[in-house]
């Protein structure tokens, strides 16, 4: 978390503390998490703990505790949710191991009067709130950005994620939609990079010899650096690669920019979405009218914000943003 | 302290009581109809799976495929049993028969059960993924009603545990066929020489395991309302731990159905207790293991002392 973000957060909290909303000061919010084994989840937990600690200190909520199951299993997380009901939490924010297998426990929570807000890994139980990422828009935006940079169009290479995962389907659908609307582009090749640089590099290197000139690469995050390396190894000009906020990608981008003025766009979901879920839960407890389905904006890094993003992102991690109460209110009113 | 050896069941009961008292002390809210049901309702499928595992351990084998099998049953329950009940029942029956056949094959060809069941776990897992490639399905309405029923005074989870314990106790300890089955685990050769068809007996034990595995999967779906191909993978180890915690032994023939059910409840409660303690997840698995070792050590100490006396 940067100093500015911290200051912003503190300012937000000061505003609340000064305001009339002390209704939730006795309420307790718990985070139910099913997995902590990668940098994205670590960043997510850290963000929640920082935001929660500040909110508790400012008296906005009574408690904000994070729980992670010892194993990434739906049955474990269901038991964890039931324990949270017993512990008397007023709201549970939930990154679920399964979209459906927790519905029974979620319903138990709702029946006990507990507010359940799921995010990232959402649940389908009707009584829960969902904060989902508009992955489709993320795919479409990439093509739209390319259209502004390359008005004459050309051939595109698409790098997809892990086959069979809902996120991959959504981003792909968005890219298809973007290409349909911008007919000057044509997707001439598509490979699966599995959101990993090494896999992406191998896959792109394998398909490159059979491809005509490629002007742009649309990606899903975690694969842009690998693609760039594959183009370099094949002795081709580096096309316009849309990146996904990983630190190694942004470092490569900065190096290219310094060397030859390379310009691109980077976008992905921020692990700080946990803080958004926290504020949404607080708003629901406060009595605010909140639609059940919310969409979280994705985090964009542009040419102007690259240096700042790179500075605040630890090596091997992902660019992050911490959402404030005002961000949550904006998301809620946007969904009304 | 001959008491503990004389009544094998005493130690599991004491462990559960101690843990329950500690949990109530930590979280007084749990000491209610609603609280007890929440603490134990997910233990019901685990108890059923533990009984299934007990049937296998009873005949001196071990089943490493139980978790995958329960997951498969959960997938069948959430899809076929819900959409076309007849077909669903037929598939579940076929699965029970598969288990029985497995028992017969293991005995007839003298295969190590640990290897065969490990292999079968991949078959069950693959089938589960085939039926439900992405999480989903829905619990049949009657099953959901059954698992969320609120009987007067005693929560569903407790009722179900008592019923499972009593039924399996009658079946395994009191009935004639149960005694013979335990005999197969204790000394298969004597049973054979006494004129019993051991192949059929083993098939029966495995079939019973399959039946209770099916019940476990159905109970799980009734609680979660939908399934996932990986929903019950943890049940393999949980069920083995439950049997041993409940006073069973790997040597075959020495099992306690009531103990197995209590063992399953204790394991579930241990996880909740550690979560109430706010122990970091990194330590939770280790702490769960420590509780297991503690109970087993206590048992060993008591049996040793009795042996000397």
UniProtKB/TrEMBL annotation, chain A:
Residues 29-288 form the Periplasmic binding protein domain. GO terms for molecular function: carbohydrate binding. This is Monosaccharide ABC transporter substrate-binding protein, CUT2 family. InterPro entries: Peripla_BP_I (IPR028082), SBP_2_dom (IPR025997). Coiled coil: none annotated. The lineage of its organism: Bacteria, Pseudomonadati, Pseudomonadota, Alphaproteobacteria, Rhodobacterales. GO terms for cellular component: cell envelope. It is found in: Cell envelope. Keywords: Signal. Belongs to the bacterial solute-binding protein 2 family. The keyword Repressor does not apply. Residues 1-22 form the signal peptide. Pfam families: Peripla_BP_4.
TrEMBL record, chain B:
The chain crosses the membrane at residues 7-26, 32-52, 64-81, 87-106, 113-133, 153-173, 203-225, 231-251, 258-277, 283-302. GO terms for cellular component: plasma membrane. It is a multi-pass membrane protein. InterPro entries: ABC_transp_permease (IPR001851). Its main location: membrane. Keywords: Cell inner membrane, Cell membrane, Membrane, Transmembrane, Transmembrane helix, Transport. It is found in: Cell membrane. Pfam families: BPD_transp_2. This is Monosaccharide ABC transporter membrane protein, CUT2 family. GO terms for molecular function: transmembrane transporter activity. CDD domains: TM_PBP1_transp_AraH_like (cd06579). PANTHER family: ABC TRANSPORTER PERMEASE PROTEIN YPHD-RELATED, ABC TRANSPORTER PERMEASE PROTEIN YPHD-RELATED-RELATED.
